[in-house]
């Protein structure tokens, strides 16, 4: 058995006293020595994501455009053509007329003898033929002036022809340079038999400007919103000229009668309209027995649309300005999209809204 003597125990204690301070010294020196900067790790390179090469297909070009004289849509290739206005006969021997079922706007005016004639306007649809075409009257430049394009008529007094030729419209007069577009039909007796090749003359003068809008439109018109329910309207230009318009809910249109009988179109059905606008007008008798409807001015009127009617005021500032319809608040009234008949009824006549 090993015996530990006092001497050996003291030697080991002295060795521990030496070792411990040395370890502390090494630790302190290590703590105080400058630390090496860590080597930065390499930043991983980012591979950019492949961007999409998908390109949306271009939208197809529009195929329709707003029809300025109806508020509907029409083929875009036809929207730029000029309007065709024509003086159309309404004497009993001229009925039924050709092309009145395709019009955008028709103006009915008083002429001599208490009878009426039309300034009918085509743009959205142009039929092959229209007529019978008759002579102009002194108010026709004020009616057709804002429309531009072509005005067709069979002649007239030189003073009235001169007034029309001062407008910006192209005058197509029977017996003139555009006679190749007109002919007399054997189906009627002269002078109620002059026919115009409507589509041919519009194609020939297609470089003329398209018409500007004459009225404002909204999806259902303003009469159903702000007017009252109405069966239709009766107008009387004179004791010899009574007109009736009746709302037909099935056809969504007003149907026209004249002298108590349905008013029809040659080769087609009954004359109808989406809007019936009645304007109360003054008559200027400066031309003797030929009445001139006063178009430049203002007055009261009525708009019938969609089985409802409302009172309006109308105004027209000049020969070439359009007719503006306003309600009692002074806001411009909007018609329903579709064709319009404008009845220019003298104050001596009568208007009955049913």
The helix/strand series, from N terminus to C terminus, equals: HEEEEEHEHEEEHEHEEEEEEEEEEEEEEE
Query: Portion of residues in helices?
Result: 10-25%
CATH topology of the largest domain: YerB-like fold
Total number of helical segments? 5
> Which word captures the global form?
globular
Give an overview in words.
- 14% of the residues lie in helices and 33% in strands.
- The chain is built from 5 helices and 25 strands.
- Strand 4 and strand 5 form a beta hairpin.
- The chain is globular.
- The model is unreliable at 1-46 (pLDDT under 50).
Per-chain topology:
Layout: H1 6-32, E1 64-66, E2 73-75, E3 84-88, E4 105-110, E5 116-122, H2 140-144, E6 150-153, H3 158-165, E7 170-173, E8 182-184, E9 194-196, H4 198-204, E10 216-217, H5 223-226, E11 228-229, E12 232-238, E13 241-248, E14 253-258, E15 261-262, E16 272-273, E17 275-281, E18 283-287, E19 290-293, E20 297-305, E21 308-316, E22 324-326, E23 334-335, E24 340-346, E25 350-353
Parallel strand pairs: 3-6, 4-24, 6-7, 10-23, 17-24
Antiparallel strand pairs: 1-2, 3-5, 4-5, 8-9, 11-21, 12-13, 12-25, 13-14, 14-15, 14-16, 17-20, 18-19, 20-21, 21-22
């Amino acid at each position: 058995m090993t015996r530990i003597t006092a001497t050996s125990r003291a030697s080991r204690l002295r060795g521990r006293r030496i070792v411990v301070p040395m370890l502390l010294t090494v630790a302190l020196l290590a703590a105080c020595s400058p630390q090496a900067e860590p080597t930065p790790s390499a930043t991983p390179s980012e591979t950019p994501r492949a961007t999409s090469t998908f390109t949306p297909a271009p939208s197809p070009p529009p195929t329709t455009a707003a029809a300025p004289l109806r508020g509907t849509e029409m083929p875009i290739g036809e929207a730029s053509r000029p309007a065709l206005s024509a003086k159309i006969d309404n004497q009993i021997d001229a009925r039924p007329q050709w092309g009145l079922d395709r019009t955008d706007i028709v103006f009915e005016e008083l002429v001599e003898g208490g009878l009426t004639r039309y300034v009918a306007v085509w743009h959205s649809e142009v039929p092959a033929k229209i007529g019978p075409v008759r002579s102009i009257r002194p108010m026709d430049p004020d009616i057709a002036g804002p429309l531009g394009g072509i005005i067709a008529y069979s002649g007239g007094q030189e003073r009235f022809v001169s007034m029309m030729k001062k407008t910006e419209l192209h005058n197509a007069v029977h017996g003139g340079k555009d006679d190749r577009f007109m002919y007399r039909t054997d189906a009627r007796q002269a002078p109620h038999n002059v026919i115009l090749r409507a589509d041919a003359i519009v194609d020939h003068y297609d470089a003329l400007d398209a018409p500007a809008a004459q009225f404002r439109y909204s999806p259902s018109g303003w009469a159903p919103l702000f007017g009252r329910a109405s069966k239709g309207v009766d107008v009387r230009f004179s004791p010899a000229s009574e007109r009736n318009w009746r709302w037909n809910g099935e056809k969504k249109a007003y149907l026209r009668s004249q002298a108590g009988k349905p008013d029809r179109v040659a080769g087609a059905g009954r004359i109808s309209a989406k809007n019936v606008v009645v304007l109360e007008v003054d008559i200027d008798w400066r031309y003797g027995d030929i009445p001139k409807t006063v178009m430049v001015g203002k007055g009261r009127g009525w708009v019938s649309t969609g089985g409802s009617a409302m009172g309006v005021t109308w105004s027209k500032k000049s020969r070439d300005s359009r007719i503006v319809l306003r309600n009692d608040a002074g806001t411009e009234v909007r018609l329903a999209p579709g064709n319009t008949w404008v009845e220019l009824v003298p104050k001596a006549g009568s208007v009955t809204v049913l």
